[in-house]
Design brief:
The protein is an alpha/beta fold. It is built from 12 helices and 11 strands. It comes from Gloeocapsopsis dulcis AAB1 = 1H9.
Length: about 350
């Protein structure tokens, strides 16, 4: 099968490309050339900006991909450009989406009221408000203000001439994670903190995570499986409370301390989490497991070991702004520890 990957050089993309190449598919990646990636021999590259896709239609027609994987669909216009370009060329488009499409995400952010039942299924209610990052002064991964995967999905899944498949991703971690999701916790563990304190409501909260190699396996299956046409899938690893998840991280890191859940009355009076932890945010993955035969290719223990090794060798220059928001400063943490029973 001929597969064209739009993006494909940053974090998740190379793992997808390696998997597709290893099982014998002909892979070409279209990218800007700004990110270097170790790609298998034989993988072709086309350099250009996604806005130039319509101008390159004749070149892409000669390539004649069977399936197009678009890793960097952020806006409605991105999706319209992809579908317009590949109509009459490809047989299917696979779009990478996110579980931020759900109403539960807005409830988590405090933008909508009520509590959405979990685990989320592919048919759970979507956000009632569009553009979740519109009013944020700083946006993760430099997402544009008009970022919205809901609109992306609507465009990709509504074209009768060019069928689509959607993969809704969780929070993805692993080597080369640009958000360094484990680093704030690993830093404390490597500094031999005796304990990491989590607000009780956050310690019990359950989010949705996926290791990069497992996510890549799910995407590869969606690309090569004809039965994925017209379908939407979740992918995620085993899901734990935050206290449980970080305990697993500590074990993998060789840390001798412990995760402690702290009742609210021990916390500073003016300290609040920036999200509503009454709303869990994790997804059911039954559909992709049953329909495409997906299962994790890397165990949790190995996934954490590989991630920790990479984080230790590649610490960020500054503390990530998008993770560790629930963590207290060391003096406050030490003072609370003296008061805990």
């Amino acid at each position: 099968m001929k597969i064209l990957v739009i993006g494909g050089t940053n974090f998740i993309g190379p793992s997808v490309v390696h998997r597709l190449h290893a099982i014998g598919h002909e892979v070409t990646i279209f990218h800007r050339g700004k990110t270097l990636a170790e790609l298998p021999l034989g993988v072709k590259e086309i350099k250009g900006d996604r806005a130039q896709l319509p101008e390159m239609k004749s070149e892409l027609q000669c390539l004649s991909p069977d399936v197009v994987l678009d890793m960097i669909l952020y806006t409605e216009q991105d999706a319209l450009t992809t579908m317009k370009t590949f109509k009459g060329i490809a047989q299917r488009v696979v779009a990478i989406s996110s579980i931020d499409v759900y109403r539960a995400y807005n409830v988590l952010l405090g933008k909508e009221s009520g509590i959405v039942p979990v685990p989320l299924t592919e048919d759970s209610p979507l956000r009632q408000q569009l553009y979740p990052f519109e009013n944020m002064p700083q946006r993760a991964l430099n997402a544009p203000a008009d970022y919205d995967k809901i609109l992306v999905e609507q465009v990709v899944m509504s074209d009768v001439e060019l069928p689509g498949t959607v993969i809704r991703l969780p929070m993805v971690y692993g080597p080369k994670d640009p958000l360094h999701r484990l680093f704030p916790y690993l830093k404390r563990m490597d500094e031999n903190r005796l304990a990491i304190l989590l607000p009780e409501n956050f310690a019990q909260w359950r989010g949705c995570y996926g290791y990069v190699e497992n996510v890549a396996q799910a995407i590869a299956l969606a690309l090569i499986s004809p039965q994925a046409t017209g379908r939407i899938y979740h992918v995620a690893d085993l899901q734990f409370s935050e206290a449980e998840r970080l305990s697993h991280v500590g074990k993998a890191a060789g840390w001798q301390g412990k995760i402690i859940s702290v009742p609210k009355h021990y916390l500073p009076a003016d300290w609040n989490l920036p999200f509503n932890t009454e709303q869990d945010w994790f997804a059911d993955t039954t559909r992709i497991r049953q329909e495409l035969g997906y299962s994790e290719v890397i165990s949790q223990e190995e996934a954490l070991r590989q991630t920790i090794d990479w984080e230790r060798s590649n610490p960020p220059q500054e503390m990530p702004q998008w993770t560790g928001l629930e963590l207290l400063d060391y003096p406050t943490e030490d003072e609370i520890l003296t008061r805990l029973p």
